[in-house]
Amino acid sequence: MGKSKKQKAPKNHSRPYPSHKPTTQSNSASSTSHPTTPTIPFDPSHRILLLGEGDFSFARSLLEQHACTSLLATCLDTRSELVEKYPQAAAHISALEEEENVKILYSVDATRLQKGGKAVRKGGFDRVVFNFPHVGGLTKDVNRQVRYNQELLVGFFRSATPLLAPSGSILLTLFEGEPYELWNVRDLARHTGLKVGRSFKFQADAYPGYEHARTIGNIKGGGGWKGENRAARTYIIELKDGEGVQREMAERKRDEGDKDTDDDDDD
To answer: What are phi and psi of 205, to 5 degrees?
Structure first.
């Protein structure tokens, strides 16, 4: 990223996500029903570290649709490996590299972030984000897969915690149902000195342009399913004594008039 590049004005400053129309109901409950507004746990002022980006479409959506211009987006693959797995990533990377305050790093291990380079070690992130982490097909044995993925999350939590700003948080998004529920995210967080402050439904359409990228790469013909159509949940993970993130989110919800009842506040 050359210093001569000019920073583009992010799109959609006035509305960070598309409006969602309420569903019509024939019974009397329709008069009191309201649309489910997506919970967007990001603010343009946030310094955001993205880990395990697939094709970088999520990073690009944060930039262009949510005005998040202070991004450090990373992936485990080298650039050549990434583009081979996800050819569409090249266009997303090019768009991100045009922005002065956006940086992309390759070969960053989410469990060894202190080795991720100076930009990562600097820390002070308001949000450290890991969407749909998975170790891949190391084994077909379900119990071993669960254990390997639990080890991945524990390593990630321990590595990410020192990089948080005083009121920062870790955002972890997983699919709902098995085997993901067997990972026991809340227990893993407690085991590493953290807690799940709250959780909420992840709505992919709140991030226009985002497409779920599978760990193994693109599947010829598109595969039998699309991750963005599958039920998923985001967990806000913070230090056990940290209340700053929950307070900030509550204030933002009041300001936006968000009446989403899907949120889960249990620890």
So the answer is: -75, -5
Using an 8 Å Cβ cutoff, are 29 and 77 in contact?
no
User: Mind listing the pLDDT tens digit for each residue in 45-84?
Assistant: 999 999 999 999 999 999 999 999 999 999 999 999 999 9
73: helix, coil or strand? strand
CA–CA gap between residue 223 and residue 235 (Å, rounded) = 27
- What letter does residue 212 receive in the DSSP assignment? -
pLDDT tens digits, residue range 244-256? Answer: 455 555 555 555 5
Nearest-10 Cα torsion for 76, 78, 83, 86? -20
Residue 34: phi, psi to the nearest 5? Answer: -150, 155
pLDDT at 214: 72
Q: How much is the pTM? A: 0.78
Burial of 34 (0-12, 13-18, 19+ CB in 10 A): exposed
- CB burial of 197-223 (b: ≥16 within 10 Å; e: otherwise) equals bbbbbbbbebbbebbbbbeeebeeeee
CA 42 to each of CA 62, 146, 170, 197: distance values in angstroms, whole numbers, following the listed order: 8, 29, 12, 16
